[in-house]
Design goal:
Length: 178
């Protein structure tokens, strides 16, 4: 009996060590820090119930994850199908907007945000220059709205229209709503 219990203990210890190794390997390949997730928009634990909003700026959004690193909060945006060696400017500005929203919500300025593509992670330092750039972009977007609160279509790509959340109510859609 003792030898079978010893064998079982060794097997369980080996299984536990293997699971810990797998967890560290998975975390390392995602590029995310080993810190607590305080909010998520991916349907997992810690679901962010409502979007973050900055009423003064007129900005609302939900980062995929918000990590807590000490007293700071770090927004994470995940683009799981994107494969690129350099981040897209539009993705960086989305992440910068999330940095602004995280600062407004938690009242602590995030030092950076993380953008995760399929095979690579990028860090966006949330500097005063980045904040100024995102504020200018939001103001430009708001200025482009007509008095009826509508925006002109800025492309001729049916695939983009098909994937847009407003295709059902857009007068300029290139495709029929599903």
């Amino acid at each position: 009996m003792d030898s079978s219990l010893s064998l079982l203990a060794v097997l369980l210890l080996g299984l536990g060590a293997g699971l810990v190794w797998l967890a560290f390997r998975t975390r390392r390949t995602t590029g995310l820090a080993w810190v607590p997730i305080v909010a998520s928009d991916t349907g997992t634990r810690h679901v962010l119930q409502r979007p973050l909003t900055d009423w003064d700026v007129g900005l609302t959004g939900k980062p995929d994850y918000i990590l807590q690193h000490g007293a700071t909060y770090i927004p994470v945006e995940v683009k799981p199908t994107r494969r690129a060696t350099q981040p897209y400017d539009s993705d960086l500005m989305q992440l910068a907007a999330y940095c602004l929203l995280v600062e407004t919500h938690y009242r602590v300025r995030p030092p950076y945000g993380i953008l995760r593509y399929a095979e690579q992670s990028f860090r966006l330092d949330y500097t005063a220059a980045v904040e100024e750039l995102v504020l200018e972009l939001v103001a430009e977007m708001q200025d482009s709205l007509d008095p009826n609160g509508e925006c002109e279509r800025s492309h001729d790509e049916p695939a983009r229209c098909r994937g847009c959340g407003f295709v059902a109510v857009c007068d300029a859609a290139l495709v029929d709503a599903p």
